[in-house]
Amino acid sequence: MSKRQSSDYASHIIDEAERMAVTFQMKEFTDKAARELKRPTRQLKCKFCFQEHHSSDCQTIPQAGKMATAIQQRLCLTCLTRAFHLPVNCRGLKMNHLLCQHKACGKK
Q1: What confidence category does residue 3 fall into, taking pLDDT thresholds of 50, 70 and 90?
Q2: Are 70 and 77 in contact (CB under 8 A)?
Q3: What residues does each domain of the chain span?
Q4: What is the C-alpha separation between 73 and 27, in angstroms, rounded?
């Protein structure tokens, strides 16, 4: 086998490997897109008034009513989920954008 034939063979192998890599990446991309399309979308539902908005954005129930409802439904007072954890252990504390936006809380 001459050098020219071996270099042609090597370039053919490299081209085929690149084609296979692109094909594999496209398959991963299309599979991920198909999984996203099959995933059911969750509807927003307020834990307090059961309308379609985030619980943190609820304007229909006064703050005292929200606190009483959260305690009655055994919700975490930080993330408002039924995760059965203490507010001290809540993952919501690590996500500042979920916490109170009021200036009196010290958040700027």
Answers
A1: low
A2: yes
A3: 1-41, 55-105
A4: 45
